[in-house]
Amino acid sequence: MSPAALHHSRAEAFPANWWKRAGFALLFLYVLYAMSTLEITWARFVAGLGHADEFFARMWPPNFEATKLDLLTTGMIESIQIAILATFVGVLLSLPLGLLAARNLMPEWVSWAARGVIALCRSFHPIVVAILFVKAVGFGALAGILALIVASMGFISKLFAEAIEEMSLKQVEAVRATGASFWGVLVMGVLPQVMARFIGFAAYQLDSNLRNSTMVGIVGGGGIGATLFTAYQRFDYDFVLTILLAIIAIIMVSEIASGWLRKVFQ
Fold first, then answer.
1. Angle, alpha carbons 159-201-173 (nearest 5°)
2. How far apart are CA 256 and CA 57, in angstroms?
3. Which of 14, 39, 130, 135 is most buried, taking the most CB atoms under 10 A from its CB?
4. Which domains occur in the chain, in start order?
């Protein structure tokens, strides 16, 4: 093959995608523009490192005084209770909502209505929802629980519906052939196929709610987040570090427990 023919074949085998290159170039230019409008500069970053060094120096060593530990224990127990109650109620509500959202089991108008509810639950961050509930029911654990219930429904219902849509319909058709009712089909044909994944979703959501309980507490939803916010306001940074270490420990324990649950039920 002549050099000209070889060059022509290579050009056809690897054509230049100018649309993709133009897209990356536009993205790069937009990033530069956004950084300039948001005043993101290297000088501010360097100055921030100095402030961070001073802040961390004021946090060390952590404060383990008895009175501080009492506040920490009370707030942490409340956060755990918020996470467990929100996960329990959220899972109970997500089970029927996910079934209604499954397009291979329900009429189209039912599944689309259920998916609209799921999309509404997923539209806002738990902090935003917590602010709304704080205004509605006042400060305290109830607002945090309600906010995390909404977040749990948005997450678990969506994944549960997708798990149902991905299951095999042969077992469902076999149960239907026996003359079973709709509830019998759900219990004998649907739930056995997706229950292990549903439990995995619930375990993950419990782990997520433990983290989110800290955030909703900052805006008035109770739990350790309220204690953390109060410590920040009082410039009690050594106690802030103690709270952060306790949160990390709880999340690590929760991660191990949720992983164990997923292995047991799968």
1. 55
2. 31
3. 130
4. 3-57 (no CATH), 64-265 (1.10.3720.10)
Angle 127-129-134 (CA atoms, 0-180°, nearest 5)? 90
Q: Distance (Å, rounded) from C-alpha 196 to C-alpha 262? A: 8
The angle, 0 to 180 degrees and rounded to 10, between the axes of the packed helices 66-101 and 191-218 is 140
Residue 171 structure tokens: 């077992």
Most confident of the following: 80-89, 177-186, 204-213, 230-239: 80-89
* pLDDT digits 0-9 by tens, 183-234: 666 666 666 677 777 777 787 788 888 888 888 878 877 778 788 888 877 7
On whether the CB atoms of residues 130 and 229 are closer than 8 A, the answer is: no
Q: How far is the C-alpha of 129 from the C-alpha of 198, rounded, in Å? A: 24
Tokens 């536009």 belong to 26
What's the pLDDT tens digit per position in 100-134?
887 777 777 888 888 888 888 888 888 888 888 88
What is the SS3 string spanning 41-96?
CHHHHHHHHHHHHHHHHHHCCCCCCHHHHHHHHHHHHHHHHHHHHHHHHHHHHHHH
